[in-house]
User: Which sequence fits this backbone?
């Protein structure tokens, strides 16, 4: 049905952040050799580079809270673009930080992350 | 060169928000019949619907301030995914609001907006 992309997006978002928060090395199975990750404006490409970036972030404990997930079907359903907003709490930081993350998911038999852009958001002055 | 997508993204972002803030009806030239816009979780599709949405937003004066623009080449350069963060000031609102906006730009002879997702960001508690 026409709502399937939204359901795939919701399931992906839940799986992605659960995995990020509990078993970060396992995220690498979601990427492909042609994938890109931009994390706080630093770009990585390919499974090995992305894995190294994600497993060497400067924090240990992390918890994401998703506030919104907006999805659109790309190329008649071959892909899904997703914009997530939420907050992230790391280590013993007293307050969560806002983040925004954009994904382009593609299906090559299974859904994977072709593009991933993560950015922290600091309050406007 | 390999940096061209970043330059296209920067030029697009400047043009998009300048046009949004000074001549909003002209944004419709950036969309195509297959384009999607999700504005604050409300989805529009196609040039006419997107035009109607953008020109009937509940504010008159608007000014975007872009804080960050992160781009990646899609499908070997046929497309560009862009994540923008920044703030938006509308009408006589005393304070700007944070926003995040994700674009998938495609080139059919000229660069256009295939996908557009806009979301306001409210500070984490």
Assistant:
């Amino acid at each position: 049905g026409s709502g399937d992309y939204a359901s795939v997006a919701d399931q992906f978002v839940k799986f992605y952040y659960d995995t990020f928060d509990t078993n970060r090395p396992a995220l690498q199975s979601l990427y492909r050799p042609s994938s890109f990750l931009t994390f706080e404006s630093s770009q990585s490409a390919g499974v090995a580079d992305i894995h190294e970036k994600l497993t060497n972030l400067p924090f240990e404990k992390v918890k994401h809270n998703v506030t919104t997930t907006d999805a659109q079907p790309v190329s008649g359903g071959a892909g899904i673009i997703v914009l997530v907003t939420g907050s992230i709490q790391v280590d013993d930081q007293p307050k969560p930080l806002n983040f925004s993350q954009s994904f382009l998911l593609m299906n090559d038999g299974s859904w994977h992350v072709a593009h991933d852009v993560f950015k922290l958001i600091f309050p406007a002055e």
Strands of chain B lie at 31-39, 42-45, 62-74, 79-90, 97-107, 111-121. Chain B touches chain A at residues 36, 38, 41, 43, 65, 68, 70, 72-74, 81, 83, 85, 87, 95-98, 100, 102, 104, 114-115, 117, 119, 121, 123-125 (CB under 8 Å).
